[in-house]
Design brief:
Layout (H helix, E strand, L loop, with lengths): L1 E4 L2 E4 L4 E7 L17 H11 L3 E5 L12 H18 L5 E4 L3 H9 L4 E4 L9 H8 L3 E4 L17 H19 L4 E4 L8 H9 L12 E2 L5 H7 L7 H13 L4 E4 L2 H15 L1
Helix pairs in contact: 2-3, 3-4, 8-9
């Protein structure tokens, strides 16, 4: 359960928190939207002070039905943010949330430390080559289709079996490309409905058979706010509850909008396990 980030061996036996820094105008949770010339650095500093181990930067909203973003626009959003962050916080471990190999390559050259790919290479056949070239950890997520089509691609004969098969194939491909460190994300909310998300969370521990670190991205998602009958802005308590379940079921990384509360969940669940 260790990964190599820019020459640092990171032990994920104790779960880590990844703070979300969106650079998109249409992310589903409006409070998470940032601009490099706005409160971006202040928000990043707050997350680091609250205990974020990684910062995940994205320039393409992947909410269901999200609008297409051109590669040029995505790059214009993300590269200045990476450069600004590393100038201000040179030790920060930056994850790039992208499915495009060109974006990944340029951001890794600029100093990013991980790639977070919602498509596990399905949307860009060169992605694994780029990750292998830079020898950085690769977060691969389970999803069907694209952000524009995934909502209608949620029929499974046996969801957990199909997810395990998907990852076993993708892990083999990553290893063939020479990628040393792989992290798997079961993809809550991606080509899965609310009932399926709860089933996946309940059975997430079965993914440990893959013997790789697990990332859980549940923060303020519709599974929470639609179930509770509220808005994303009111879904922090629900997020903390499901993050706690994810930790108890084996999550090694929590990807969140609210770092302080996630760090507290890690600390408290750690006490339960000791």
């Amino acid at each position: 359960m260790t990964i190599n980030c820019r020459g640092n061996l990171i032990d994920l036996t104790t779960p880590k928190v990844m703070g979300i820094l969106n650079l998109t105008p249409d992310s589903f949770y409006s409070e998470s939207r940032n601009k490099p010339d706005g409160d971006f650095l202040k928000n990043a500093e707050t997350m680091l002070q609250e205990g974020a181990f990684f910062l995940d930067i994205g320039g393409y909203s992947t909410r269901p039905g999200a609008l297409e973003v051109t590669p040029d626009d995505e790059l214009k959003r993300v590269i200045p943010a990476v450069e600004l962050l590393l100038k201000e916080f040179p030790d920060a471990l930056i994850s790039i949330d992208t499915f495009r190999s060109k974006i990944a390559d340029d951001c890794l050259k600029a100093g990013a430390a991980l790639i977070n790919d919602i498509s596990a290479g399905n949307l860009d056949e060169d992605m694994m080559k780029v990750v292998a070239k830079h020898q950085v950890p690769y977060i691969m997520m389970h999803m069907r289709g694209t952000p524009q089509t995934m909502k209608d691609l949620n029929h499974y004969e046996d969801m957990l079996r199909e997810i395990l098969l998907f990852f076993s194939q993708k892990i083999k491909s990553a290893h063939r490309h020479g990628i040393a460190d792989v992290i798997i994300d079961p993809g809550f909310g991606f080509s899965k409905n609310i009932a399926q998300n709860f089933e996946l969370l309940n059975k997430m521990g079965l993914l440990k058979i893959l013997e790789l670190p697990l990332l859980a991205g549940l923060s303020r998602k519709s599974t929470i706010y639609k179930t509770l009958g509220c808005e994303p802005a009111e879904a922090l308590n629900g997020t903390s509850i499901l993050n706690t379940v994810a930790l108890l079921n084996g999550a090694n990384i929590l990807r969140v909008h609210d770092v302080k509360e996630a760090v507290e969940a890690v600390k408290l669940t750690g006490c339960l396990k000791n």
